[in-house]
Amino acid sequence: MTMKKDQERKGRVIYFSHGGGPLPILGDGSHKAMNKFMTRLPSHITKPDAIIVISAHWEENAVTVLGSPNPVMLYDYYGFPDEAYSLTYPALGNPKLASRIIRILKQKGIGGRIDNERGFDHGLFIPLKLMYPAADIPAIQVSLVRGLNPVIHLEMGKALIELMDENILIIGSGFSFHNMRAFSWEGNNTADQPNDSFQDWLVETCTAFLSRTEIEQRLILWEEAPAARYCHPREEHLLPLHVCVGAAGENNRATKIFDDYILGKRAVAFQW
Prior knowledge:
Low-confidence stretches: 2-7
Shape: globular
Strand content: 15-25%
Order of helices and strands: EHEEHEHEHEHHHHEE
CATH superfamily: LigB-like
Mean pLDDT: 95
Number of strands: 8
Radius of gyration: 17 Å
Largest sheet: 6 strands, mixed
Helix content: 25-40%
Number of domains: 1
Structural class: alpha/beta
């Protein structure tokens, strides 16, 4: 795993695949590579003062930010063993940062609101339990916007550039492949050329020497990528990537930090 530490700014941006529901924590073998990656990831970055997670599992009519100082747990999955519904992640929220994000979004003409009731969904608590099990870093979630317009999510990210001079970690928590019918729930890693083509397209888009305009245009027109709708019948697990690319600002070129199998399908992750 090759990482880079940005010497010009304190903030970092990472997009990764968070796995299938609670399975990474329950010891599922098809998440072995992902778990290894996530548990090692913190050793390659400076410990942040705060974490902002854009979760694929939260959509609202407008950008919504979790504002509770002590977020509850939201078990937004079904049909798993009882253990999955007793998982805890007692990290504090960060109401001050949440309010600041809303203020920034409004200044940029995007708008948004605070939600003081919603809890941490598994797009946050599963990866953070692996990365920072002590739960000693304040964390907040930011929603996607219904309609899943790629331009809106790029603009959301651009608004967050203002935070990148601070020791803040922005995580786009999604999945670079998310076709529920095509996953191997038995964890059989099988050849899948259409998915390989899409993952290769993502890698090229995020890591090649492309201009900012070229990157954004590719992501806006992502449906034209090879096997795009096979890999993402619905794009909610892809769009956290758009927010990350926006937040990366002029730091256009990402580093690929994961390229392995989860639930039998190849998935990738990036750091800016």
